[in-house]
Design a protein that fits this description.
Layout (H helix, E strand, L loop, with lengths): L1 H37 L18 H24 L4 H34 L3 H10 L10 H29 L9 H30 L24 H20 L4 H21 L6 H18 L5 H13 L7 H17 L1 H7 L50
């Protein structure tokens, strides 16, 4: 009897030891997977697949995690036939380890963003390209890469992570009622996406407003002593052209980001143009007609894509321009100049005729609202954007065509 009891005790000890070894093996698998995912940035080739808007990096992340699940099953299934306790004890650790694996891909994307930021100089860019394999597409600009990383963030949080969570829950490694991983990972990816979005939008603001900054300096135009307008101001024409180019870049890479980025740029256009006209101390009749022409042109160009707040600000600024000296003949000439501009620049108007207000916004976070959730998974909350107050606007063009 004593011999039998010792044998049972030894057997139980061996089973316990095997269980501990297999649990340690699972933990090592998670740690190894985390590191592999963090190193995925070296496999980015910036090639856009059939599904536009993101690269193959999220799928590589998904495949690595699914391979991890296969390895976990191979390690744990044999001991499950003997004793379920080691597996039950391990389940409490799988949640935190799985979360670390999910977040490791956010670290990978952040590291990739840092590399891109550091590669803006020609020397660093050349070194970065040389480190890549032959499939690297050196024709993609830095800003376009940021858009692709934004697309990777969105695709990961909206598609990849739910698939991985569902798979782990289906195999019993995560409780079906546990949503903590989903919520915590959402916060991490949203924070990363917000940071990348800010960098991209800042670069687009420099692109849109950089060339017209000279026209936005104080006292750049004599609103109280100018001649009668002969066309739309240069800065309005430049804004239209730059927004068309920015929109085209986004449509070629990630259409779902179009609403958010163009919407934010239009907020800035509204703040700068309306702010500039609001700061004018005194209008002559000719200056008032020119200001009205510029604002009416902006409304015609961007009316379909502006938020209600932007439109209301534009109309309020338009109403604030002195109109006492403007007669019916002036109004007729103003309308004629606006129609002439629309006819001469019909291509610009057709390019901007993309009704963003009817497009669904699939971004992770609304600009200016940190902590907001992902569209489709949390209700979005629109936050009114703010921007720097602008100096007075530009001089009058000689009806130059864009």
């Amino acid at each position: 009897k004593q011999w039998y009891q010792r044998r049972v005790a030894i057997t139980a000890g061996i089973i316990h030891l095997i269980g501990n070894l297999r649990r340690s093996c699972v933990r090592c698998l998670f740690l190894y997977t985390e590191q592999n995912i963090r190193d995925l940035h070296g496999r980015e080739n910036w090639q856009i697949g059939q599904e536009r808007g993101h690269t193959a990096l999220p799928f590589l992340f998904q495949n690595i995690v699914l391979s991890l699940l296969t390895s976990i099953r191979e390690v744990l299934e044999p001991i499950k036939l003997i004793d379920e306790n080691p597996i039950e004890e391990l389940k409490s650790d799988v949640q935190s380890m799985f979360y670390n694996v999910v977040i490791s891909f956010a670290d990978c994307l952040k590291h990739l963003t840092d590399i891109i930021e550091n590669s803006k100089s020609e020397e660093a860019e050349k070194q970065y390209i040389e480190e890549k394999d032959s499939s690297y597409n050196s024709g993609i600009k830095t800003e376009e890469r940021l858009v692709l990383i934004l697309g990777n963030c969105r695709h990961t949080i909206l598609t990849i992570i739910p698939i991985l969570l569902q798979t782990f829950k289906a195999h019993g490694y995560i409780a079906n009622s546990d949503d903590s991983i989903d919520n915590k990972s959402l916060e991490q990816y949203s924070s990363l996406e917000r940071s990348i979005f800010d960098k991209y939008v800042n670069s687009k603001e420099n692109f849109v407003f950089g060339d017209i900054q000279q026209f936005l300096e104080p006292n750049s135009f004599p609103w109280d002593s100018c001649n009668f307008p002969v066309g739309v101001s240069i800065y309005v024409q430049e804004l239209a052209l730059k927004l068309v180019l920015a929109q085209a870049e986004l449509q070629n890479i990630e259409k779902d980001l179009l609403k958010r980025i163009i919407g934010h740029l239009l907020e800035n256009v509204t703040v700068r143009v309306c702010g500039a006209i609001s700061e004018v101390d005194r209008f002559s009749k000719n200056g008032a007609v020119q200001a009205k022409l510029d604002l009416m042109t902006c409304l015609e160009l961007f009316k379909d894509n502006m938020s209600q707040r932007c439109r209301r600000t534009m109309y309020d600024t338009l109403d604030s321009i002195p109109s006492a000296d403007i007669n019916t003949e002036d109004e007729t000439v103003l309308k004629m100049l606006l129609d002439k501009f629309k006819q001469q620049n019909s291509v610009i108007f057709s390019c901007l005729d993309y009704n963003l207000t009817n497009e669904a916004s699939f971004g992770l976070t609304n600009y200016g609202s940190p902590g907001d959730g992902v569209s489709r998974r949390r209700s979005q909350k629109r936050v009114k954007g703010k921007g720097p107050r602008s100096p007075p606007p530009a001089s009058v063009s000689a009806n130059t065509e864009i």
